[in-house]
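Quick question, first post here. What does this chain look like in 3D?
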Amino acid sequence: MHSLLALNSLPKIGPIRVRRLLERFGDADAVLAARKDDLIRVDGIGEETASILHKWQDFTDPTTELREATERGITILTPDDELFPPALREAYDAPLLLYVWGKLEARDRHAIGIVGTRRCTMYGRNATKLISFQLAHAGFTIVSGLARGVDTVAHEAALAANGRTIAVLGSGLAQLFPAENLALAEKIAEGRGAVVSEFPLHTKPDKQTFPQRNRIVAAWSRAVVVTECARKSGSLITANLAGDYGRPVYAVPGPIDQESSGGCNQLIREGATLVTSGADIIDDLGELPFARPASLPTVEKSTLPELPPDEAKVFAALGEGEAGVDRIVDATGLPAPVVATSLMKLEMRKLVRALPGFRYVKR
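> Answer (accepted):
Ran it through. Tokens below.
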């Protein structure tokens, strides 16, 4: 573990080159003990990289790193560990290590990535909340990046659904970013998922670490959903990476005159599957993480289950036609967040169906 920690901490040497070194020398200990002349003979290892490897002790202290991780309650997994995500392990550029704050579970292999803009509109926020809540409620683990905006909403909705969620950082766990999401990260790590990173504990985020983080989200996930993003967005990087890994890509359509939806509309034009609810994704994947659970009941048309008061009000307010959230709020007198949550639950009960533009109709 110490030697692998050292290799993972060295500058200008990524996981692909480290794997070439491991293939050549057999294990991490042998790589660090290799002569400089032998290191240079490995494909992709030039003079500068060989010098860094030869003087690795000038750059990192794996003993101190491991001790601090232990003190912080952080587990470090290698690809050989049972709980290391299998889909991530199989990626050609899989991380050498995962620092894990919280706990991974076997069911986290049934993961769906949800990503989008940091500057999400109310439209994007509602779309993210709906889809993340439904997928988490169905048993999928929601993977996102703990960033402001869509990522934050995706994690929060998964928690609201009593589901699991994984936050993948573009920084070390001792440099959590953004700082205002520390409380959310703590809530995730306290038994509802995990906060993970491939970077050494005190790595600060920069323009290189975020794309590296995005590849983990894409490789880990069974599919990736983009709920709202502009044409120039890191979310498009994640979507493209998902395509490279052979993962399905889904996108929520948005108003054509809104810059914040330009990236999603572009993805759909280029072949991503248009979705308006979590049910669309489940139907397209053709599977649930487990056998159909009680939380996804099928309802006979001739019967209506007894509903909690708020859901009953919302269901009654739909009438016989379609209705938007604003109209339902006016009709019921309930706060908009309560209406949105009730609609999610009614959709999971197969009692209502979501239409484009956040309109709903009884099934």
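The chain is about 45% helix and 15% strand.
The two ends are 55 Å apart (CA to CA).
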